[in-house]
Amino acid sequence: MNFILPGAPWLIAHRSMLGVNKPYKITLNNCDYVLWQNKMGEIFALENVCPHMQAPLDNGWVCKENNSITCPFHALEFDGKGRLIKDGEAKGEAITKSLDLIIKDDLIWTYGNFEPRLSVPSFIREKSKGLNFFGVAGNKAIQAEFLKCIKINYDFNHQNGVHSDTFRIKENPLESFEKDGYYAKVVQTFIREDNTIQELFQNPSLISFPKKIKNQLEYTFPSTTLFKAEVPLGEILQFFILYPETENRTRTFVLLYANWGNPVINVPGLGNLIKRSLLKSTAKIVEQDSKALESLYPSQKPKIRLPKEEIMFYVEGLYHEW
């Protein structure tokens, strides 16, 4: 079994994705886990297989009284440490493996029980300070290996093709590219064509995007890409998250934050309309990237070079040197 970047910190969920007393399944590096959160906000995680007859625990339910996960086959209960519960109490040693979690600012991180090689970044908390959390968008599995998925986030040429139908980008000049170890930053400008009335009607958030958008992307390898844009209504932050489910499947989701400085957003109903539209358009971006990645043929040596590809070589180097 090949583990992808063992010892890297992976952001596997935002607290809002779990709900309360509901099993939530994730897959990380070829292993399935079940997470659950009680009404006090405590979060637990175990390997998703019952040690009795290997039933998937996420098909079971949460016992609120014992803060335990219940197997769907025989109603066996396990606490957050993997111990069997009998008569309302945990008995003996753990018989199913727990997943170590690190929870910071509603963000749920894990090293997948590997020895840490990098610290859990405070990047999202620092960058989103003072902004409103709008929600999670584009939570899906991409049928593509992790390296291909991470490279598309560092590819500044793909917006003109993959996202042309949405944003009508005709140019995206790169102003600067800085790198410092596992951190990188890019400043660029999107120069857009006009959207049609029909496109604006279908996606009202496009109203907030001018024809020229100065934006920046910041990266913390290997999981997080921040897209930050200044628009007339205020500031938008999108954190694109990736982690490897298997060797050929990658999970992604986007955390959306915003700060509206323009008073027009206070018009009754307009704020919620823009918020819903932003979440919808963010999900569409993820869907477009996913389709592009899943349609690729096996990798070959490129016979064409495009401008601004050096940052892709940078992240590819970090991956192979891990």
UniProtKB/TrEMBL annotation:
Coiled coil: none annotated. Keywords: 2Fe-2S, Iron, Iron-sulfur, Metal-binding, Oxidoreductase. Residues 10-110 form the Rieske domain. One of its GO terms (molecular function) is 2 iron, 2 sulfur cluster binding. SUPFAM superfamilies: ISP domain (SSF50022). It comes from the Bacteria. This is Rieske [2Fe-2S] domain-containing protein.
